[in-house]
Each structure stands twice: as C-alpha cells, then as structure tokens.
Amino acid sequence: MNMPLPRLAAGLIVSLSLLSACSMSPSEPQTLYAESGQPVQFTGRMHSGLPAEGQLSFANGSQFEGRFDREGFPAKGRLTQHYVDAEGETLTLILEGRFKHRGSSQRLEFKGDFQISDSEGRLLAEGRESVWGSDYRSPLFRLPPALFALDGQRRYRQYRRDISPASDPRRFLTVHRPMSGPFIVNARYEEGLPRGVAKVSAELSDGARYVVERQYFNYQLPNQRNHYYYFEPGSYERVSVIGECEAPNITVPRELISVYAYDCDDGNFYALSESMPASVLSIAAEQLDNSGRFHQIRILHHGNTSEFEVDAEALLRGELLADGLYTEWHYGQLHAAYMASHGQPVGVGMALAHHTESVFVSHRLENSQTEFPSTSLIETLKVSATERQQAMHQDFARLMVGSRLSERRAEQLKAALEAHIAAPAPSMMADYLGLMSLYQQWQTEAATMVDNWPWQSRRNAADIARLRDALLGKLAMYRERQESLLNDAARQHCLASGQRFDALRWECRLEPEAAIFELCQHTYGINRCEAMQTALQASAAGQQP
Q1: DSSP one-letter code for 517
Q2: N or C: which end of the chain has fewer CB within 10 A?
Q3: What is the spatial distance between Cα 501 and Cα 505, in angstroms, rounded to a whole number?
C-alpha cells in the first residue's frame, strides 16, 4: 500500500525542477539581447526568459533595479538616468516608485518620488508623488529609455536655478531670479515642457515661503512660442542683471513702469506696470536713445502679444500710449495692425471680422481739427523759394567780377542779400502753424551769416563762393523742412480721416500705409491682401450716398 509514494515524490521532484528552470536566480551577471547589437547586463531572477526581479544596466549608464512585469518592463523599483547640463556637468535623475508600460501608446509611465543630483551627489531637485513619462517604441525592454519628462500639475523643490539638459534647455522650469534656493516650483507640464502659469516661491530656513517669480509658457504653435517671466511685485527693489554683462542705462517713469530685470542673452529689459496686471513689458536695449528713453515696447499677457511705437510726449506725462505702428497677436495669429496717433487707431488697418477672417478697416478720428494743405500753397512755396534762390544766385554772379570783389561791389552785394532775406513771406504761410516760424528762423540765421561775414578781409572769388554756397544751402535746408512739415500735416489729416496720404498725387486714398500692407503680405500673401483692399474700397463706395 505504500508503493505509490516514491512515484509521487519523484513527480514532485520533477515539478520543482521545472519551476526552478523557469525562475532562475543566477549569482553572476548575464548578458541579455546580445544578438541585437545593444546588449544589456542583468543580475537577478528571470522568468520565461525575461527579467523578473533584479538589476538591469544599459551601456549608456541607465539602470533599473526592482521588479519587472510579465513583459519584462519595469513595474516597481528605482530607475537611474544621466544627462548633461548647460555647463557640461553630468546630472543624475532617479525615479523611485511604480512604472507601467503602455504598449498601445508606446510609452513608459512613472508615479512616485524623484531626485536630481549633480556629479558630486549634491541634491538639485526633489519631489514626491510626481508623474513622469517617456516614449518607448521597442516591444522589449532592451533599449535605454529616453530621459523621462514631468507630466501634469506638479509641485517640487528645486535647489539650483537651472537643471535642464543642454540639449533641451526648456525641459524643466528655469528660475530667472538671481537668488539662492531652495525654491518651491508649482508648474504644469505637458508633452515634456512646462505649460501655462507657473509660480516660484523662495523657502526660508524656518520653512516660511513667499512668491518671488511667476512664469508663463505657451507652446501651442511651434513657430510662435511665447514664454515670459516676471518677479513678484513688491519683492524687489532694483533691476537684476540676468547673465554676465553690464546693463545699459534706462529711463522710465517710475509711477508707470517698474523695471525688474535685464537679460544679457536677449538684450531686453523686463518690467511691470500696475495698469496692466499679470503682463510683462519688454524693452529692447537697441530701442534706447542716448538719454536712456525707449521708443518701442512689447507687452506680453498670456497668449497675447502687442508691440507698438511709443508716444514720447505721453510717456513724459506718465502715460503709455501708442504712436505709430501697432500690432497685436493672439497665440501666434495676427489679430490687429494699425497706425496709432496718441493711442487712437487711425488710417486703414487690419482686424479680424467675426473673430475669424482678417479684413482691412478704416479708422477715423472723430472731431479731428487737422487740415489738408492745399496744392496752391505747395506751389506758392515752391515758386517763392525758387525765385529767391535764383535772385540771390544772380546777384552773386552779377557783382563778382574778377578775382576779388571791390569794396563798392561788396557793399552792393551785402545790401542785395539783406533785401532778399528781409523780404516778407508769402501770406499763405500764416495759414499753417510752423511754416512762418521756419521762415523766420531762416531769416535770422541767414541775416546773421551775412552780418558776421568779414567783408573787408574775405572778398576774393573763393571766399565769396563759400558765402554763396552757405546761404543757398541754408535756404534749401529750410525749404526741405517746410516740405516735411506740410507732408506730415497732410499725412496726419489723411490718417485722421481713415485713409493714406499719397505724396505723388497729393491726396488721401482709401488704402493702408506701406508698413501695414507689407505686414499683410508677409502674413497672408499678396493675392489675399489685394482682395482685402478691393473689398474695402467696394464697401466704401456702397456706403456713399
């Protein structure tokens, strides 16, 4: 009756041997996937030819130690990865927690604690209950995974301002504030990059925290990436220099603008204004004049970016107004472009109709007091200047006989020049502010030049030719200033009436300024812009009585 027992024992021994063969625990490291050309070293327990528990090491130094799932992918344990930062130092990322491989999305996911340390083992960043991910296309865990990236809304401690890889400088949030950590970073990560609004707080030795910096990220359009940062209002007293350089002098109305940083890399000042909450004002150093005043500014507010030329007079009064070309972009899409006059849109600009399609729009200034200079005034000034120039030239030619001007002829020439200079201005000049002032300035400077000329000692032909050229040059200069003044007056009148000034035809035309049309061409193409122009003129013609 006891005979079957040995057979049962033998069967048990066979089963145990088979189980041992499926779950080997070699004491020596073994090489896996040698035939792939990228072998890995494994020490631990195998199951069905795949790692089950132990340590798997890749040739690039990455390493996983812990338990594997049925497919041989990490399940729970510790993953170590290395990368090189912007300074050329090798940093180490350690993820310790639970891993999951999703074959459908070809991705490795992690949830747990992390640490980043430098080559000497000093802690640079750490966090708990963080979520990370890495794309992984291989059906077997035989290739080192790409560097894991944070995912979702995360809060972690960062001891150094910059911990990103040199090859991907935006992988982690960089603290711009030039101060020592530790920092508490509260940011959302998506597709391996920070996204939206992020908050950086400084942590004191007693555990107290206060916000020192906020950042905004937008990567929705690859070609229009928008990222800016600003120091928390009230947390700074002077301009911080970001980088290794000396900041140029900048002059701003302190009651309007508070400059907090100068970035050496991009050459921009960054500032805040109470009148524009949660917005950053960017001022390029190249836009500063010798006095430190700026003439162009860029304003960033989440996905909106506006850029415009500044009204210098308004800035002195403590107002930030556009005066010149104004553009506005929304998440990389052009929303508006127009010429501005003291903060008001004028002329023909671009806008989005029904928030979808760009069109040309005419902007008129109500109750404008500008006047359009008449063609008769232009012709009168031209004739007057030409006649005076010819008369003075003839006097020089008539009286300069021989190689030296006689004393009598010198007196005659001086009297003739004084008469030309003292001649009254055309009466039509009084109709336009500034014209008469320019004429009087010319009279004063020309009369001084004639009076101060050393007539007794400098009467030879070469000297008198120099006097002639100087007087006629002075006349030509003031003539150009008159033309410029009238052109500006005509342009301002046309812009105020929602049009463009055509200097060749000396008239207003329902067309955009050249800068607006060029921007349209660059954004939409010539055919689209010409169609927009035709539509604007057709619409205006249909509204006329």
Answers
A1: H
A2: C
A3: 9
